[in-house]
Amino acid sequence: MKAYSLDLRHRVLEAALSGDHSIAQVAVLFGVGTTFVNKMLGLHRDGQDLAPRPHGGGRRACLSDAHRKLLRAEVRRRNDATLEELRAYLEAKSRVRVSIPTLGRVLQQLDIGRKKSA
After folding, report:
1. pLDDT tens for residues 79-115?
2. Residue 8: which domain range?
3. Averaged over 43-59, what is the pLDDT?
4. 8 Å CB contact between 87 and 103
5. What is the DSSP letter of 5?
């Protein structure tokens, strides 16, 4: 979800500080939650900036493009390999350790389906 603009944050704060409306009414008026209004009041009370905080960038990918190419080639070569066998291959070949669920997600991202025969 995208952060509320700084302009909206200031307008919400001004409306809440004016005393003409309750916190619930300010929230309805601007289409935000009461928690957001209380947060803006708290930041103002503490003398902090109202600007939205930066969000984290997420985790770094476990497997590089080179690892993904290696994995794709191994699946082409041995299309009946299990996830455990592919994980062991990656570890032996490139010294990278990944969990089986991570390997399954990577195969889905590469659009490599599971072999369904018994």
Report:
1. 889 999 999 999 999 999 999 999 999 999 898 876 6
2. 1-58
3. 87
4. yes
5. P
* C-alpha neighbours within 13 Å on the C-beta side of residue 89: 17
Map residue 43 onto helix, strand or coil: helix
Give the angle subtended at the CA of 16 by the CAs of 21 and 55, to the nearest 5°. 135
Give the DSSP H or E segment for 16.
Answer: helix 6-18
95: alpha, beta or left? (left if phi > 0; alpha if psi -120 to 50): left
CATH for 16? 1.10.10
Measured CA angle at 61 (ends 59, 66), to 5 deg: 165
CA 22, 23, 24, 30 torsion-angle sign: positive
What's the confidence (pLDDT) of residue 113?
Answer: 76
